[in-house]
Specification:
Keywords: Phosphoprotein
Helix content: over 70%
Distance between the termini: 71 Å
Shape: elongated
Structural class: mainly alpha
Largest sheet: none
InterPro entries: Ras_GTPase
Protein name: Neurofibromin
Order of helices and strands: HHHHHHHHHHHHHHHHH
Strand content: under 5%
């Protein structure tokens, strides 16, 4: 069957995976757990050759499971276990995705999978018994999805930013902006995020601006942790486009930080933005600073005088010791000038 009707065979494996989920079978014993794990491994291997079919099938299963009405503690636990199994399978399939997949795959991922993943990240907040685990698992799927399908995720974020620039409501939905915190970000992707933010930051409402600030800070740390060599290279060979976007965003954020409360909210990102501009750190160390850089020098002085060092230490604990050694050197050059 596999040789003559590969699509039917793949669908049969997907159906078996679906039928043996805890939410369908009830309490799992050792035999059913082994069978479920075997089905999962089969789909992961098959996805290397029938990626679209497997991802589409898993997305439909996840959608159906999410829409199930359940009653009772045992049923809720089985639902939660099933969601974790599906999310873990999706993450592993996406992690093994071939880089030469057709663009049709990306379109399908946007229309089908991404909204389902966002459901967990956006909806499952504190108070839900399994919120943290489900959100963490969904975040892993989004990270893997964005590795080879960054344009799909970026488009969703960019579209939401554009919508918020013309939004007149005081209460705004910033969930899609927060996706920035969970995606795979290398140097080129971080640059795109900064450039997109520069274009739209000023027109955003305050809640959206704060969401962008917080999300970009986390995106930077994701970049440093996952691509430490790129961060090191930044100080060996300046990325002009990156530095330009970072400096322009610094100026926008600096204008936003009018009050002491706002300054406290944005200074970690401002330090990060200056770190992305190695040449500026040298310029503002001079006795005479040109007018266009005066706000950077003033910020460094403010940070030195007002920001407690334990907050800098809190920032540093996010990454490995080696990476933090590099970043600490950058922070010291900023704070002790």
């Amino acid at each position: 069957m596999a040789a003559h009707k590969p699509v039917e065979w793949v669908q049969a494996v997907i159906n078996r995976f679906d039928e043996q989920l805890p939410v369908k079978t009830g309490h799992q014993n050792n035999h059913t757990k082994v069978s479920t794990e075997h089905n999962k491994e089969c789909l992961i291997n098959i996805s290397k050759y029938k990626f679209s079919h497997v991802i589409s099938g898993l997305t439909n299963i996840l959608k159906n499971v999410n829409n199930m009405r359940i009653f009772g503690e045992a049923a809720e636990k089985n639902l939660y276990l099933s969601q974790l199994i599906i999310l873990d399978t999706l993450e592993k399939c996406l992690a093994s995705q071939s880089k030469d997949c057709l663009r049709l795959d990306e379109t399908m991922l946007v229309k089908q999978l991404l909204p389902e993943i966002c459901h967990f990240i956006h909806t499952y907040r504190e108070g839900h018994q399994h919120a943290a685990e489900l959100r963490a698992s969904a975040s892993g799927v989004l990270f893997s999805l964005s590795c080879n399908n960054f344009n799909a995720v970026f488009s969703r974020i960019s579209t939401r930013l554009q919508e918020l620039t013309v939004c007149s409501e005081d209460t705004v939905d910033v969930h899609d902006i927060e996706l920035v915190q969970y995606i795979n970000v290398d140097c080129s992707k971080l640059k795109r995020l900064l450039q997109e933010t520069v274009l739209k930051f000023k027109a955003l409402k305050k809640p959206a601006q704060l969401a962008v600030i917080n999300s970009l800070e986390k995106a930077f740390w994701n970049w440093v942790e996952n691509y430490p060599d790129e961060f090191t290279m930044l100080y060996q060979r300046t990325q002009t486009d990156m530095a330009d976007a970072a400096e322009r965003l610094f100026d926008l954020v600096d204008s936003f930080a009018e009050s002491a409360k706002r300054k406290a909210a944005v200074w970690p990102l401002q330090i990060i933005l200056l770190i992305l501009c190695p040449e500026i750190t040298h310029i503002i160390s001079r006795e005479v600073v040109e007018e266009s850089k005066a706000n950077k020098a003033g910020f460094v002085q403010y940070t030195t005088d007002c920001c407690p060092m334990d907050r800098v230490s809190h920032l540093s604990c996010r990454s490995s010791r080696v990476i933090m050694g590099l970043l600490a050197a950058s922070l010291i050059s900023l704070l002790l000038v």
